[in-house]
Design goal:
The complex is a heterodimer of chains A (313) and B (367). By secondary structure, chain A is an all-alpha fold. Chain A has helices at 2-6, 9-27, 34-59, 67-84, 89-114, 118-137, 147-154, 162-180, 182-192, 194-199, 204-230, 241-251, 263-282, 287-312; strands spanning 156-157, 160-161. Classes of the chains: A mainly alpha (313), B alpha/beta (367). Chain A binds chain B through residues 28, 30, 33, 35-36, 39, 43, 102, 105-106, 109, 113, 131-132, 135-136, 138-141, 143, 150, 154, 226, 229-232, 234-237, 239-241, 277-278, 281-282, 284, 286-288, 291, and chain B through 1, 4, 7-8, 11-12, 14-16, 18-19, 24, 26, 74-75, 99, 101-105, 107-110, 112-114, 116-118, 120-122, 132, 134-135, 137-138, 198-200, 229.
């Protein structure tokens, strides 16, 4: 009975995280400070927000490679709608999120209606959305946002970075939906056996479109906090962020074949990667060394988890 | 579905019409100051100090300091050379521990995260080459507010986010050197294209703006066909050069590479299609990467400064700023083996004039 918990992927991950935290604190006395930890929280938000939605996508057995481009397109939309079209900034933020949701919905429609594999469909829109972003922006960056806007990405609420509150709230809502709501059950069912889910009368297509739409909207939300954090808008924003998000999700134990995964796992995955990045830099390891370690951790963790699985069975 | 399609079509149209303006050169929109066609020295106007001030820095005059050098990216020849210069500058000073660490791709977010981590780790100074002048500003301001000195080189941030910036060569000087070099090869009515990094990379955008102004003033009949982006990627630059040759055919007489990666890639593309002599290649490039093309006569000459000197100067300026020997209002600064460097535009330290590398002198340089 006990072994069921000990050999769970999340338990192994949590142990690794504790180990990484202890090691980092040991290597540098500047790691375990409130300042540094909150700052790390600020920096993991964008990847985190995207990874939340990506967890749903991957549990259905799909993948969304276009999120980085959606982030770029939404960021450009925010800048252009506000600066060039003169729309008030709060409204422009809403438009940006809607554009992201629209991008996601297009992904979902292509995947559902044409039965195209998600990897191909989103690989296509990865290029398409980035191209639109670059075309619309004309390679000019949009700058000079009002001060209140920076509160979102650079400010604090009750001593905690603003975007960390947003991330936390989203993570809790997503965890509840995935773990305790019918929609979550349907998500797992689609990933475990799509045909069976269909014959059980579940709204497979509608759920998938919703999930990809949410993925786009979350990428757009990440875009808004990202623009606020770096105080400028560029069309190349978010390039490659899909890989960071996918890494965190699979490190968190979500099966790339679908049907298995938890929100807690994804959160642990994100925290572990960020801890390693930060801890190693503070310990004096250079950037190239850090990514080698992170790649190895990813492979090793999945390997250990697979072995533990066999032992458990 | 129909509405979706029409929205997508609308977006595509927006992108399309925006492209239909006259030739997009890729320059920025700041004012330009082209040099005289005959190279007469421009009049110098004094500008008050416009850099930032560091808050609550400890007095480290003459004491050992540790600094970090954060280039745009690591793993390319150019920034390897600046890193060597940084190390050499630190060694000459004796009291400076310098370390170079940068993102593996020229990515704004990775660079910001890296700098943020070094602020936490408690360095005394940060020297940087920015991937985006605006995006890097908040994290540099954070460094300044924590008593960390900040000096830029190669690619600047907004002036209020750093104390000093070491400029490799004046923008209009580079523009003149490149355009004169090209005009001497393809004639006053030749057509040419540009391969740059990205349109938003501040330093390239500035050069291109100056080149546009200088071309209009001194080579008015030359035709600017197109500017294409190739990041700072070898394969992409090679492909872009090939695309330009296929697209314009005989009309294309010259290619200018705006990055140390694009120029050799363009030269290789011209060589592989046997168009040496038919299409002139020039641009900014490291001598070592251009030796085969220059020595074989495929490329006439390329322009650059010494990136090692640039890194060297950045460390020297950092030490002077920390020691207080370089203060707002100064008109020059002592930089070790480089001697006195001029300060222009309020807070910009000028490294010197660009060098043109030709068959006659390229073998004397090794970087």
């Amino acid at each position: 009975m006990l072994s069921r918990y000990v050999f769970r992927h999340e338990t192994i991950l949590a142990l690794l995280l504790v180990l990484a935290l202890a090691l980092s604190a040991n290597l540098s006395d500047r790691f375990f400070t409130v300042d540094n930890l909150l700052n790390q929280g600020r920096m993991l938000t964008e990847v985190g927000i995207i990874a939340i939605a990506m967890t749903f996508v991957i549990i259905t057995g799909g993948i969304d490679l276009s999120v980085g481009s959606v982030l770029g397109l939404s960021a450009i939309t925010l800048g252009v709608v506000w600066k060039t079209l003169g729309v008030p900034l709060p409204l422009a933020m809403v438009v940006a999120v809607l554009v992201g949701a629209l991008c996601g919905a297009v992904n979902g429609l292509i995947i559902v209606k044409s039965r195209m594999p998600p990897m191909i469909a989103t690989l296509g829109t990865l290029a398409l959305y980035r191209g639109l972003a670059e075309g619309i922006s004309q390679a000019r960056s949009v700058r000079g946002y009002p001060d209140w806007f920076y509160v979102l990405g650079q400010g604090e609420v009750l001593g905690v970075p603003t975007q960390l509150w947003i991330f936390g709230a989203l993570a809790i809502v997503a965890a509840v939906i995935l773990g305790y709501q019918t929609f979550g059950r349907v998500t797992y069912a689609i990933g475990a056996n799509e045909t069976a889910a269909r014959f059980s009368g579940l709204a497979v297509d509608r759920s998938k479109i919703l999930i990809y739409t949410a993925s786009g909207a979350m990428a757009a939300l990440a875009a808004v906090t990202f623009v606020s954090r770096v105080s400028t808008t560029r069309s190349d924003m978010g390039m490659g962020i899909e890989m960071d998000a996918i890494s965190a999700v699979v490190l968190g134990g979500t099966s790339i074949f679908g049907g298995r995964g938890t929100m807690i796992g994804t959160l642990l995955g994100i925290l572990l990667i960020q801890t390693m990045k930060n801890g190693l830099t503070l310990a004096g390891v250079k950037g190239d060394g850090t990514i080698i370690v992170i790649g190895s951790i990813l492979i090793l963790t999945i390997l250990i988890s697979n072995i533990a699985n066999r032992v458990r069975d | 579905m129909k509405t979706l399609l029409s929205i997508a079509a609308g977006l595509a149209l927006m992108a399309g019409t925006a492209h239909a303006e006259d030739v997009w050169t890729g320059g920025d929109s700041q004012p330009t100051s082209p040099l005289a066609c005959d190279g007469a020295a421009p009049a110098v106007t004094a500008v008050p100090y416009n850099g930032a001030a560091v808050k609550g820095a400890a007095d480290l005059k003459g004491k050992p300091i540790s600094i970090v050098d954060v280039p745009k990216l690591i793993g390319i020849g150019y920034f390897n050379a600046t890193a060597k210069g940084v190390a050499e500058g630190a060694k000459d000073l004796g009291s400076v521990t310098a370390k170079t660490d940068g993102p593996t791709k020229a990515n704004i977010d990775d660079q910001i995260t890296l700098i943020d981590n070094y602020i936490t780790s408690g360095v005394n100074g940060i020297v940087f080459a920015a991937n985006d002048p605006e995006a890097i500003a908040p994290v540099l301001k954070k460094a300044l507010s924590k008593g960390i000195h900040v000096v830029g080189y190669d690619s600047d941030a907004t002036p209020d986010a750093r104390e000093w910036f070491v400029n490799q060569a004046s923008f209009n000087g580079v523009a003149k050197a490149l355009m004169d070099n090209l005009a001497s090869q393809i004639g006053e009515d030749g057509s040419f294209a540009i391969v740059t990094s990205t349109f938003t990379t501040p330093v390239q955008a500035r050069w291109i703006a100056e080149m546009t102004a200088y071309t209009a003033k001194c080579h008015p009949k030359m035709q600017w066909l197109e500017t294409v982006e190739a990041q700072e990627d070898n394969i992409l630059s090679f492909n872009q050069a090939n695309t330009l040759m296929n697209k314009y055919g005989d009309k294309l007489k010259g290619i200018i590479g705006m990055t140390s990666v694009a120029t050799p890639a363009a030269a290789e593309a011209v060589k592989q299609t046997n168009q040496c002599g038919k299409i002139a290649v020039t641009g900014l490039a490291l001598p070592n990467s251009m030796k085969p093309y220059v020595n074989s006569g495929c490329v006439n000459g390329v322009v650059l400064w010494s990136p090692a000197d640039l890194g060297y100067a950045a460390v020297q300026v950092m030490r002077a700023a920390i020691d207080g020997t370089l203060k707002p209002g100064d008109t020059s600064v002592k930089a070790g083996k480089l001697g006195e460097l001029k300060i222009v535009n309020g807070s910009v330290v000028l490294l010197g004039d660009p060098v043109t590398f030709t068959k006659a002198n390229i073998n004397n340089f090794d970087f």
